[in-house]
Amino acid sequence: MANVISTAGYRNAKLDLTTATATKLYTVPTNYVTVVESFMVSEDSGNADTITVTITNGSSVFSLFKVKAVGANATVELISKDLILTAGDIVHVTAATANRLHVIMSLVQIPLA
């Protein structure tokens, strides 16, 4: 599971993708909405790779990025606008190759009234 650091509603979730299987990065808590402000992936092995990002809620799976290329020693910002997630949404990330990619997602958790 990812490390999640918090200051008030601001948080980040980060992972070193040490496997080539789907890994849970973040789950939106019950009674919250989450605004993802930044979603970065970096490659640190000197070899180009790809990442797949999905959002699940219950049995529904939504593809956010399907085999997105990340150049050797490059960093890519995956989103250009805020992404809104609702309670129960789970973000999974999958690297094509283990031990090459790191992901950091900056977000704000907003409690529902």
Shape: globular
- The succession of helices and strands, N to C, reads EEEEEEEEEE
Work out the helicity level: under 10%
Count all strands and give the number.
10
| Unreliable spans | none
Q: What is the top-level CATH class?
A: Mainly Beta
CATH fold annotation: Jelly Rolls
The major beta sheet can be summarized as: 6 strands, antiparallel
Count of helical regions: 0
Proportion in β-strands: over 45%
What's the end-to-end separation, in Å?
28 Å
Mean pLDDT: 94
Please state the CA-atom Rg, rounded to the nearest Å: 14 Å
Q: Would you identify the CATH H-level superfamily?
A: Nucleoplasmin core domain
Could you state the oligomeric state of the chains shown? Answer: single chain
Kindly name the structural category.
mainly beta
Any idea what the CATH architecture is? Sandwich
Key terms for this structure?
four-stranded antiparallel β-sheet, Jelly Rolls, globular, single chain, six-stranded antiparallel β-sheet, 113 residues, mainly beta, 10 strands
Walk me through what this model shows.
This protein has 113 residues and is mostly beta strands. The protein has a single domain, classed as Jelly Rolls (Sandwich). Helices cover 0% and strands 65% of the residues. The chain contains no helices and 10 strands. Strands 1, 2, 4, 7, 8 and 10 form a 6-stranded antiparallel beta sheet that branches. A 4-stranded antiparallel beta sheet has the order 3-9-5-6, with no helix packed on it. A hairpin with a 2-residue loop joins strand 1 and strand 2. The protein is globular. The model has no long low-confidence stretch (mean pLDDT 94).
